[in-house]
Design a protein that fits this description.
This protein is mainly alpha-helical and 424 residues long. It has helices spanning 32-36, 72-78, 81-90, 96-108, 116-122, 129-143, 150-176, 189-198, 209-221, 229-238, 244-255, 263-276, 281-289, 310-326, 331-344, 347-352, 358-368, 376-397; strands at residues 3-8, 11-19, 25-27, 56-59, 64-67, 70-71. The protein folds into two domains: 3-64, Rubrerythrin, domain 2; 75-398, Orthogonal Bundle (Citrate Synthase, domain 1), CATH 1.10.580.10. It binds carboxymethyl coenzyme *A.
């Protein structure tokens, strides 16, 4: 085993080096404070490994993303969301029998307890579907408490995967004042979601296979992304022993922010803003480069990818295909392509290695599918769910300690308490 030597205050410390299966190196500092009294400071955790994981591998320099060893390109082209969910949660691609049984279970747990509809009634119509989603995900723990053994845990995993799409669709129906559409067992995971989203009691609804397959692929592309903000939240909250549903609810909340999953909604709002402002994208490139202007090019940049985001490449290709198949000419796609073209040849973006990320083109596809903008991040959450669950399970199996970072205190040093009448 190789080691690293760190010297502090004239003393040398030998630290063991952990090497992953893809050759990544990490210096194990778990006992460093006990031996030296010092901690490592890394605000934003850009250089901190919080765990060892066998689920997802990313090489951001080369634009590689693999789940359990399978490339995202292969999974997007050849697999399905339900199969990828199985792969992430259970570790291997399923046999036909395993996939059928998993699909059957996801189908047969998709109804919500009727009483849960009353929760939806309590939300104002203006409620953002992401807030509804996290609230409702947490509320599942009141119906399905932690069980005693691994079969109970597995049942709750299946319940969550099955019911989150029903909650997602109900949150949309609530926001537009339409009646809830109950799940149907004959439509498959994504087809059933589309049916619950778009069907109304007054008409028959046919699932468009082209849209269904594109949506399935989008969910595959979002299925996991190692230790990002929401997944780290899931591991953090789960490490306290909180139940699965509360833990995932915390992950959904973390995802909702515009710097994370909320970026897909923000991209469309940005493109619409540029269009309404006369389509002058150069002006917005300049705004993004101006340090005094808080404006950022949404859907650009990534903490890990520094050459390209492989998911964005796949989505961009699909966006062209789907839009021409649907016969939709979305002016936002042109603005998006122009922004990308200009940004990629601009030294500001080149030097900082800022490329379009997964959120840049996904919104255009969701729009083409008729999905309203406030549901985009909900779709991201549905896609990310198997990843969160897999990471939560792995964290439990590793018997991880409670996550508890330290800090360097920079506040006042000790001072005497001042009575209120003596304060100036
Ligand atoms: N537009 C303009 N400048 C940017 C952008 C952007 N989108 N992203 C980063 N920069 C600049 C930033 O100002 C900084 O410049 P300087 O070195 O002069 O201070 C430099 O690039 C490095 O940026 P950073 O903020 O230190 O990078 P980070 O790794 O902390 O943040 C990020 C990553 C994704 C939050 C950020 O790039 C960003 O805000 N992007 C826009 C929001 C977005 O699209 N988020 C979705 C992320 S992908 C999907 C997901 O996983 O959720």
């Amino acid at each position: 085993m190789s080691t690293a030597t760190l010297s502090l205050d004239g003393k040398e410390y030998e630290l063991s080096v952990v090497v992953g299966t893809e050759g990544e190196k990490g210096i194990d500092i778990a006992r460093f404070r006990a031996e030296s009294g010092a901690i490592m400071l890394d605000p934003g955790y850009g250089n901190t490994g919080s765990c060892e994981s066998g689920i997802t591998f990313i090489n951001g320099e080369q634009g590689i993303l693999r789940h359990r060893g399978y490339s995202i390109e292969d999974l997007a082209e050849k697999s399905s969301f339900v199969e990828v969910a199985y792969l992430l949660v259970y570790g291997n691609l399923p046999s036909t029998e395993e996939l059928n049984r998993f699909g059957y279970r996801l189908t047969h747990h998709s109804m919500l307890h009727e009483d849960m509809k009353k929760f939806f009634e309590g939300f104002p119509p203006s409620a953002h579907p992401m807030s509804v989603l996290s609230t409702m995900a947490a509320s599942l723990s009141t119906y399905y408490p932690d069980g005693d053994d691994e079969d109970d845990v597995d049942l709750n995993v299946v319940r969550l995967l099955a019911k989150l799409k029903t909650i997602a669709a109900f949150s949309h129906k609530k926001s537009i004042g339409h009646p809830y559409v109950y799940p149907r067992n004959d439509l498959g995971y994504v087809g059933d979601f589309m049916h619950m989203m778009f069907a109304v009691p007054t008409e028959t609804y046919e699932v468009d296979p082209l849209v269904r397959d594109a949506l399935d692929m989008l969910l595959v592309l979002h299925a996991d992304h190692e230790q990002n903000c929401s997944t780290s939240t899931v591991r953090m909250v789960g490490s306290s022993g909180a139940d699965l549903f509360s833990t995932i609810s915390a992950g959904i909340s973390a995802l909702s922010g515009p710097l994370h999953g909320g970026a897909n909604q923000a991209v469309i709002q940005m493109l619409e803003g540029i269009r309404a402002d006369g389509g002058d994208y150069n002006k917005y490139i300049e705004k993004a480069k101006d340090r005094d202007d808080p404006f950022r090019l949404m859907g650009f940049g990534h903490r890990v990818y520094k050459n390209f985001d492989p998911r964005a490449r796949i989505i961009k290709k699909t966006a062209d295909k789907i839009l021409s198949a649907i016969g939709l000419d979305d002016p936002l796609l042109d603005i998006a392509k122009n922004l990308e073209r200009i940004a990629l040849s601009d030294p500001y973006f080149e030097e900082r290695r800022l490329y379009p990320n997964v959120d840049f083109y996904s919104g255009i596809l969701y729009r083409a599918m008729g999905i309203p903008t406030n549901m985009f991040t909900v779709l991201f959450a549905m896609g990310r769910l198997p990843g969160w669950i897999a990471q939560w399970k792995e964290m439990r199996d590793q018997k991880s300690r409670i996550h508890r970072p330290r800090q360097i205190y920079i506040g006042e040093t000790a001072r005497p308490y001042v009575q209120i009448e003596d304060r100036g």
